[in-house]
Amino acid sequence: MDQRRRFEAADSAGLRIDRYLSEQQPELSRSYVQKLIKDGNVLVAGKAVKANYKVNCGDVIELALPPAVDPEIQPEDLELDILYEDEDLIFVNKPKDMVVHPSAGHTSGTLVNGLLYHCRGELSGINGVLRPGIVHRIDKDTTGVLIVCKNDHAHGVIAGQLKEHTITRRYRAVVWGNIKADEGTVDAPIGRHPVDRKRMAVVRKGGKRAVTHYRVLERFERFTYVECRLETGRTHQIRVHMASIGHPLLGDEVYGRGKPPFALQGQVLHAAVLGVRHPSTGEYLEVEAPLPGYFEEVLRGMRDGWVK
Question: What would the CATH number be for the domain defined by 3-65?
C-alpha cells in the first residue's frame, strides 16, 4: 500500500514543486521526486502536476510513496584496496567517487557490491540487505579507511564501540584560511539545517552533541593542513564544524567558500587512521590509509608555491 504524505505550502511561493518536496523530505533525492511526479504520485488540489510547477501559498500537496522494495544487490568484481582482513573484519581504503552502499540511483559500483563479491556473501546481516557489514560510512567524495564486519558478533561489538565513542578516528584535511591556534576543539551540536534540509548545521535546539579535536600540521599562505580527531561521529561532522569556525574544507561544494585553485572533486578530506578493539581477541588494532594521490598533489602545489 502506498504511503501518503500531505503538505500545505505556506512560505514557498514560486519554488518548483520538485525542489519544494525534496527540501521537505530530505531523505528523497530530487531525481527520485521528479520520478514520482512523472508517475503521477504528486497531486496539487487533487490534480497531477509537472516537475516545473511553481508552488503557490496555500497549495495542498499530496505525495504518494510506493511501497519500498529492496533491490537485489549483485556482487561485482571491483578493485578494492584491502588494508587489513581476518575472519571478523575488513579495513578498506575507499577511493573518491565510490558510494559506500546502494541507495536510490546507486545500485551498482558501490563498496558493498565489491565486498559481496570479495567475501562471497559472508558479511554481517544486522543492517539488512542494502548495507551488509557496514557499521559506519564516509561521504562519497571522502577517501580513506572504513571498517566492515563479516559476522553479526563482530558487528555488534564494533557498533558498541562506536556508540561509546571509543574508536580512534583521525582524518586529514586542508581548510581555507590560516588557523591561529596550533590545536583546538569544536564542541557544538549538529542537526538538520533549519532552512536547507539537505544540509547539516550547528544548531541550538534539536541537534546531537558533536565533538571534533583538531591540530595544525602545516600552514600555507591561504590554507591550513590539519588533522581532525572525531570524538563523536555525526553526519558531515568535520565539514560542518570546520566551516562553523570560519575554516571550511577546501573543495567542499556544500559548506565551502569560493572556487578552489585546483580542479577538485569534492572536499579535501581523508580518513587516515581507524583503531578498534578487536571483537574476538580484545586487542587494539589500528589501521592507516596513506594519503591519496590527489591529496598529495594539493600539498605539493602549496609547498612548491605554485598555489598561493
Answer: 3.10.290.10
**Tens of pLDDT, residue by residue, the chain (308 residues):** 457 888 888 777 788 999 888 888 877 778 888 989 999 999 999 999 998 999 998 899 999 988 766 567 889 999 999 999 999 999 999 999 899 988 766 778 999 999 999 998 789 987 777 788 999 999 999 999 999 999 999 999 999 999 999 999 999 999 999 999 999 999 999 998 888 877 899 998 889 999 999 999 999 999 999 999 999 999 999 999 999 999 999 999 999 987 888 788 899 999 999 999 999 999 999 999 999 999 999 999 999 987 76
Helices (H) and strands (E) in the chain, counts: 6, 15
The third-level CATH classification (topology) of the domain covering 165-308 is Pseudouridine synthase (3.30.2350)
Active site residues: 139
Give the span between the Cα atoms of 23 and 291, in whole angstroms.
35
Residue in this structure with the C-alpha cell 505556506, named with its chain if needed: 10
CB 269 within 8 A of CB 214: no
> Looking at domain 70-164, which CATH architecture does it have?
2-Layer Sandwich (3.30)
Rounded to two decimals, the pTM is 0.79
Residue appearing with cell numbers 574544507: 249
